[in-house]
Design goal:
By secondary structure, the chain is of the alpha/beta class. It folds into three domains: 191 residues, FAD/NAD(P)-binding domain; 145 residues, FAD/NAD(P)-binding domain (3-Layer(bba) Sandwich), CATH 3.50.50; 60 residues, no CATH class. Helices cover 32% and strands 22% of the residues. The protein has eleven helices and 26 strands. α1 packs parallel to α9 and α10 crosses α11.
């Protein structure tokens, strides 16, 4: 008697291991992979995941990424999915195949050749990159903060620049230790406050030639009339007050027209002398999204999706997070590119993909705004949204605890409650055994 071969398992491929993609792969692994109802594969060009809202702390050296990164290979093994390293380079929708570019080491040597493999359902969660809006000199002279490698590069740049200033024979050049941050959204504001803290701590480690009050300067430049232009006026005012207390120079209504190696130039004629320039002014989808075999994109390269997160031109392809333009009922703008939105989309899409295996229609995604919190290093300000009390401002210890709880929630989504509790306790035990700042 001949045995009947079992049909191959439905293959779900998730491209991008950011806040949305990794949570989605983890949830699918637990729900479908463990029960052998589907094969789950996560693809990312890096080997580790860091929660993107932590990048400003890594860049400032106040957080060591080694302690807070997630290794994709070990995490995949523990949560019943497969990880494949690579950068997506192409798509063939007719064959249901994606192509990955070769993986190379830091010296450019090819480690893994280009590959193509099949999918039954494809999810694109490739995040976003900085949008320089075509401003001359930005690409050549600015540092960006899109991923862990760029954050670590910025931390190294700052450390080396300060060490060099300590031992150089001549006086400091104008703007040598001046840091200009272009873009006063949440990333720019949080980075400015964190750098204020870290640069002063760095000087305290024996760099006595540097006057932290006069030689080190932070300038935040924003084209809009206020900081945090997408958030409430109350939160903007509270943030501006905190920045003023820290002594961070704030220039609003200043549109950057050019960036040179020595300065930032604005439309009004301002010239901000600075050798360290960081671009945080706007995001767009990665460039390759506009070349994905005819999938619909908008003006900033986001994949246009239905409310179910399914792409408009292919029923087998979905998108979530910053790279997706998902409509909101009754709103003129799509779901905002925020970590909480990607998190909510991941759980909604996990339900939709499980329904897809049962040949059931997808469910619409409805975004719920739970408010905004902005970390200003020494303090946190924000507004929380609730069904009973509407929106209310929070500051001080309540805001700080709420801000920390967001990361713990992300950790619980990936590792579970017990792992998160153990990690928090371990951190308490090792506190004080290491310097406050990463110095290598």
């Amino acid at each position: 008697m001949t045995e009947t071969a079992l049909p191959p398992l439905h293959h779900i491929v998730v491209v991008g291991g950011g806040a949305g993609g990794l949570v989605l792969a983890t949830v699918l692994g637990r729900r479908l992979g463990r029960q052998k109802r589907a094969r789950i594969t996560l693809v990312d060009q890096s080997l580790t995941h860091v929660w993107k809202p932590l990048l400003h702390e890594i860049a400032a050296g106040t957080l060591n990424a080694d302690f807070d990164s997630v290794g994709y290979l070990s995490h995949a093994k523990a949560h019943h999915f497969r990880f494949m390293q690579g950068e997506m380079a192409g798509l063939d929708r007719a064959k249901k195949q994606i192509w990955l570019a070769p993986v190379r080491d830091i010296h450019g040597r090819e480690l893994v050749p280009s590959r193509a493999f099949d999918y039954d359902t494809l999810v694109l969660a490739v995040g976003s990159t900085a949008n320089d809006f075509g401003v001359p000199g930005v690409a050549e002279n600015c540092i960006f903060l899109d991923n862990q490698r760029q954050a670590e590069d910025l931390q190294q740049r700052l450390l080396h620049d300060f060490l060099r200033a300590q031992v150089q024979p001549g006086p400091l050049r104008p703007g040598q230790l001046h840091i200009a941050i272009i873009g006063a959204g949440a990333t720019g504001v949080e980075l400015a406050a964190e750098l204020h803290r870290s640069t002063r701590e760095l000087v305290a480690y024996g760099l006595d030639r540097i006057d932290r009050e006069h030689d080190v300067k932070l300038t935040l430049i924003e084209a809009a009339p206020t900081v945090l232009p997408a958030l409430s006026r109350r939160l903007q005012d509270a943030t501006e007050q905190q920045l003023d207390k820290l002594g961070i120079e704030l220039l609003t209504n200043e549109q950057v027209t050019e960036v040179t190696p020595e300065a930032v130039l604005t439309k009004s004629g301002h010239r901000i002398a600075s050798e360290i320039k960081i671009w945080c002014a706007g995001v767009k989808a990665p460039a390759f999204t506009t070349q994905l075999d005819g999938l619909e994109t908008n003006r900033i390269g986001q994949l246009v999706v239905e409310q179910s997160l399914r792409t408009t031109r292919d029923e087998a392809i979905f998108a979530l997070g910053d790279c997706a333009a998902c409509p909101q009922p009754g709103a003129s703008r799509p779901v905002p590119p925020r970590a909480q939105a990607a998190y909510q989309e991941a759980y909604a899409l996990a339900d939709t993909l499980a329904r897809r295996l049962r040949h059931q229609p997808p469910q619409p995604f409805v975004y719920k705004d739970y408010g905004s919190l902005v970390s200003l290093s020494y303090s946190v300000v924000g507004n929380l949204m609730g069904n009973l009390f509407g929106s209310w401002m929070v500051e001080g210890i309540v805001a700080r605890l709420t801000y920390l709880s967001l990361y713990r929630k992300h950790q619980m989504a990936l590792h579970g409650l017990l792992w998160t509790i153990k990690t928090v306790l371990a951190r308490l035990f090792i506190r004080g055994t290491q310097p406050e700042l990463k110095l290598h």
